[in-house]
Amino acid sequence: MACSKYVLTNTGSTIVNFSYRRCDDSLWDYQVELLPNQTKNIWVINGTYTVAPAFKNVINFVNEGAFPPISATTTPTPTPTNTPTPSVTPTNTQTPTQTVTTTGTNTPTPTPTGTAAVTPTTTSSPTPTPSHTPLEPHFEYTGITSGLTTNEACTSLSTFNLWGNATEFDNCTSFYYDQFEDPQFGYYSDGTIVLEIGAGGNVVDGSSGLCSLQPSPTPTPTVTTTVTQTPTNTPSPTPTFGYYTYALKSGATINDACSGSTMTIYGLPAGGPGPSLGEFLYLNPGNPPTNPVPDGYYAQGPAWWLVSGGNGQITSNDPNGCI
Predict the structure, then answer these.
(1) In what order do the strands lie in the sheet with 16-21?
(2) Whether the model pTM is above 0.90
(3) Do β-strands 296-300 and 244-251 pair in parallel, antiparallel, or remain unpaired?
(4) 150: left (phi over 0), alpha (psi -120 to 50) or beta
(5) Residue 204's closest CA among 186, 189, 191, 190?
């Protein structure tokens, strides 16, 4: 396997990280931290260096070329032809000067200049936890934001791409960077849905929610100083579709919903057929449907959805909660 030497420098003001496969022992190093203004030399198996898109412009990357250098590997080759000569010359000549010259010229040649390139090997380094293999099929999501809290993830302006194992963001159970590398722990949002990603890139059970329902970290008091004029009523637009029909089970608890009897529920989805977070569910059909479903849990297959707030809206879900 071909190797190269990389020089990496963190030009930003926050800690960044990267992953690569080491040249000396072929082991993976995951989420290697690079402090602000820190420079690291790494020896990489070609094609294995990866970094999150958000950090690519922060890390100054210099490729110093192939490692070990080609000249270092050529010096050990002539040593086998010179080693037999010291055993022959002492028996044929008794002159001390000849034995001195042969030993003096032959002893420098076996210098292990070629083997010095292999000396970085070490057996004491810990074996990293391998990244999980992405499930097929996997789908790309653009405009994703993240943060240490749900509010940071919902309000962040820095976006990047993620890959997941379902067509709907809130139905994914596992996510990846660059289709292979696990994302870091924290909260992630597509602008509408926010969820928590834990170990191995897996979604924490029951962590999905709506950004619109997250509490504001710093509530700002509103002071009214102007007279509000009476607005002119405008007719509501007519929906282009009537409703979606779902066969769902329901109950006051997750277990009741997962094992309950199937009933017909009608919905106006927030972004396509669901059920999905933010969607409103109803007991009666119509255009639009009427009579919101009561608060509680609703299930279909391995997934459940929580309706709360008294208006039939889905506020939380777990794609594998009934397993």
Answers:
(1) 28-34, 16-21, 50-51
(2) no
(3) antiparallel
(4) alpha
(5) 186
